[in-house]
Amino acid sequence: MDLEDETLLFQSSWDAEKEEEEKEEGGESDTQINGRTGTTGGNGVWGAVGWVYTQPWVSGVVLGVGVFLPCALSAYMFLYCPPLDIDLSYSAFEVHSHFSAERFDALTIAIKTQLGSWDRRRRDVDPYDSTTLQELLLDMLGRQGDGTSNRTSHGGLTSTSLKKNLFKRVVMEQRGDALSQRETERHGEARGGKLEVRDEDKNTTNLGTFESRESIEGEGDRDSERSQTRMRRFAPNYSYLQSQALWRIELVFVAQGGVDNNIFTPERLRTIHHIERLLMQHPQFQQFCWKPLEVLRDLPLGPSYCSPPSSLLSYLFPSERGGRIYYDGMGPNLADIHGALSLAITHPQFYWYVDESLAPDRLSSSLLRSEIQFGAPLPSYCSLQDRPEEQRSRFRNFVVQYADILAQQSTSQVKVLYGGTELFDNEVRRTFHRDMLLALISGGCITLLVYFLTSFSMFLTFFGLTSIGLSCLVALFLYHVVFGVRYLGILNGVAAFVIIGIGVDDVFVFMSTFRQASHLVHPVQRMVYTVKTAGRATFLTSFTTAAAYAANTFSQIPAVHDFGLFMALIVSCCWLWVSILMPAALCIWTQCIDPQENSCLKCSYGSCDTDVDAAILSLSVETSLSPPEQGTSGMVSIYLQWALRHWVAEPAVENRKVILGIYFLVLLLSAGCCCLLRPATHAPLLFRPDTNLQTLLGLRNNLSAQGISCHMCSGLFMEKPHLLHSPTHTTPSVACSINLLRILLLYLFMTGPLLTVYVSKLDVGASITLYRFSLNTSMPSPWKSLSPRNGEVPSFQAYIEPHSNFSTHMTVCVSHPSPRWMITSQSCDPRHGWRSEFSFYVASAEQQHSRRLYFAQHKLSPHPSRVCAEPPGCVISSGPDGPTRGYFYTPSRTSGFNPCSGGGCGQPAVRPLVDTGAMVFVVFGILGVNRTQRTDNHVIGDMGSVILDPNFDIFQEIGHLCQICKVISANKQLVKPGGAQCLPSGNKLSSILPLLHPDCHSLPEPNLLPGQLSHGAVGTHGGRVRWLSMAFESTTYKGKSSFQTRSDFLQWETFLQEQLSALPESSALRRGFQTCEHWKQIFMEIIGVESALCSLLLSLAICVAAVSVFTAHTLLLLPILLTIMGVICLVVAIMYWLGWELGAMEAISLSILVGSSVDYCLHLVEGYLLAGETSTATPEHTMDLSAKRQRRTLDAVNHVGVAIVSSAVTTVISTIPLFFCVIVPFAKFGQIVAINTVVSILFTLTVTAAMLATMGPANFHRPPGAVLKASLAVLGTTAFGVALTNLISDGWKPHFEVQEDMC
Known about the structure:
By secondary structure, this protein is α+β, with helices and mostly antiparallel strands. Helices cover 49% and strands 12% of the residues.
């Protein structure tokens, strides 16, 4: 049953009969109908526009100005405006206006003001504030003692005299420590370079201190001066540079490729050892390595003084020199794994290297951490303050070379992850740039496609894409200069991909409209029709798309806000520039370029006719297009139009009821799947899961905080060199006797008739190196000693005679007259000039305490022979093993060495806290943060200033503070055991506070690494304590999703408010709060999802308003809304079928679906209206309403089908390169846009066409006044909605105030 025409959506009456009479008047020609504005295209503004775009020289001027203006604006921006920063940080998504961010920022500002830095690398309270705090507490304690002198309790344990004596002892202890420190410093300064050090002091290490990166801002402390003094005496060749650990490379080795994910297997450990040695063999390593004083006692390290990696391999690969064991990790042989780990676990620093699953009774870990430290000042720099940025730049240029090396080191058993501030940032930048290079691929594909769709016109292809590129420059100028945004976020990178598809849409509409207006004879009429029709159609689609992006500007997340603004500006500028340049390009192309291009194209097919464009628009429903013949201008467009008409539009119109039935069924199923889409259950991904960056970020949830460095935790610093045949630790007498017996037997086994073979080398050519084998340590010139690099072996031991299983005879031969050395398992051949130099005995199979070495000889002259530790270094000839090629085993004292034989290593240390959980701070004395002077909401800008509570008095609240600390630390559901850090480190307050209040006795002590600073902090200013923060390591796992972690936040908030509400009304502690950096991150994603969904609704409302104004009819608005609803539901359902979850990136992508979905169906509705205005060949009174709807629908597809399909194809192709991006937001955005584009064009050509053919107004022609009335109606509806919302919110406000007062 056909529907009758409905009334206008916003018009009260419509004189249909009068319109029918006008339609039934004599059949006007096409030229007369389309030329009602005048014979020359109209007067006034449109006449001027038509004249400008029909004069080639004027159009050339327009093109010149359109190209020059963006270039001039961009030149001004880059030359005279502040530089535009690229912000690729994760913090760009933080919401600084949220209460969780304001709390944490207030604490951060206070700590930075007081302590100089935020993380664990910060210095502790500076000496002035530390002394001030101590004196304040001691003075208060003294006043309490004086005030109670008249109220003594004779004989009691709490008598005044006892308290005074205790007070005096504490005072003397505090002041004595300070005096002792000052005396020591003055004594050290007086002695200067004559400071003497006892022999036993050479091997001691300062395990309780960590060097601070913030020390680069200071003048250097006296400890470093004394260290340098010690170095001057005992290391005259020491460089005195690179003595402070300033930079680092973080390494994480993860076990993979097996059922047993234990990293402590021989194969995996040897792989890790090879990688660490490889990094130290870099040619420039010694110029940047860290050179602490402690390396001077490690003889195997040689004269480089470079500290080896901070790794557990220092225990597993010890070195041996002169009968002593050095735990430096530079030894060639693997020690006994269980024994080495048993020694290492006696130190709490051991737990820093492994995961949380390792326990003393289960020495198994899935990963192993390592750090390589680099020192400053660098050579040619006097100090850390000498051109610090230049030093950092030099180190950055050096360390980035490791990225390519480390990227190739992963094996089937070990996955190598690498990071560090400079290396990680470089990886992020390289990843971003590589992903951006994909835009070039996208641009090249789009260029070829546009060239094809423009019927092989280079001129139109060039100016079509140029107009898009120029619009980007204008948008960037407005974004940076006019709107004053100084940053481009990581999301803005997708603009390079998306704008190509959006811009090409506008270009195709202009070209398609211009070609279809070829039936207009007068050039001015044709150009005015093109500008008005195409400009109006592209304006509406561009407006809705820009509005959808602009809806994101209401987001509180800075990166999303900037992305929405940038994309809205690009889409708007793209429409403006295409609307200005494309008519001018079409003018020049028609009059100057097209005849030559057309003649060349036709001549290539054997026909040189110069026919002009044929009218593409079918004006009669009876006229059926046939496949075009070759040689016609616009050949590609005509082929596409014919295919769309006969293969898509006509089947959709004929089977419209079936299509609508399928549509509603799909809509119901999609809506059901949308309800099943669950929020994200894991932390958001920034990079592809299998990449080094994302794997490292994910593992950090299980590792300690990034600020905790453990560069002095290895065996080099924790263990002293000791004799090879002595126990590591003192044991009871019985166990000691057993150990000595075992060691004696081992000594007798290992100390047979051994000899040492020394290897030296001589470079005789660019690619030839000779090796010399000798039993003498001295070497003649110009031979050079070997260093343990590239698999070279400086020396090895062997037996003089057969010993146990070491019975394989090897001979060293030397040639005459030119000496060349060779190792062979046979006798020397005197016929070829070889004679025996010496021989030794080795084993052919692996033995206990043995080391495998490889040997090989080159078959070509001069026949160099070589011994190396690994096969790659010995591959100098090909072929099977033989007398001069193979491997053998030599005795090794460190292979299988067990430092804990007999159980003499001691008890395992208790696992300390290394910030594996979220650190929650309870803060008192801070009210908030003042950001009144801040001009933007970006994270790189000024953070503001802290607002302090003037009523906070630590002496009045000390008892309540101690009670709160005890109560929170006792909550095992929220706080890990030993995770309470109530007091700042370095102030020795634990001995003073119990004297101030009895509740401060037995405060919980944190279980920290030796020398690790407490997160608790205190701020002093003006002679008083202004604020205090307690730190608690929570049980919250940082790898959970934001929606799951929010329950942990609520538990903390509820529990703390319960404790604070129990305090007296006058207590300033009631204004305390809890904060955590992790809370900022979870609310960032939650707010991102919520704001994106709000933007989705806002863009939908804007779309409804725009389409209502544009169509001015309910039956034209309804197909568009139903199409948008179906597209969004189906896209979300596809996300569910693909296994996606609703995270921040998915929600942000959904917010632009409305703007992207409305384009194609809105173009089709525009074609439906144009079909009603131009089709008069068949008298309408002879056709029923259903036939009219079908005719107008088919003509609409004829009119805009080619343009919207071409636009959809280019959009999909432009987003396909995004699929291969490493940055997950890019990839997700590209996938969602591609899916949305395919679904949108499919629904437009089927569902929208079926709806128009079923319910479209058959006789509706948009009158001029309808748009104005519709605009007024939309404005009125919007004003009414805003007023109603404000009224409802004002009505609920008193209710909320009452509820707050009750709380």
